[in-house]
Amino acid sequence: MDQNDTAYSDALACSANKTAASRDEEDDADELEDRPRTRTPSQESESPSESDLPFEQGSRHVPIHSLPTELLLEVIRLEVLWYIPNLPENYYSRLVGLSGVCSRWYHVIRDSPDLWTRMHGSDSPDIYKLAMKRSSGRLLDIVLEADVLYEGQDEERDHLGWFMAEVRSHVDRWRSVDLSFPPLWTDDITCSLEEPAPNLERLSLYAVERWCTSYEYNFFFGEAPKLHDVKLEGIAICWDSEAIHNLTAFDLSSITFDCTDDILAALSHSPQLRTLVIKDCTTRSMASASCASIQLLQLSVLDVDLGGPDATEDFLDHIKDDRDDAPAQLLSRRKRVEGEHPRA
Question: 0.85 exceeded by the pTM?
Answer without folding.
Answer: no
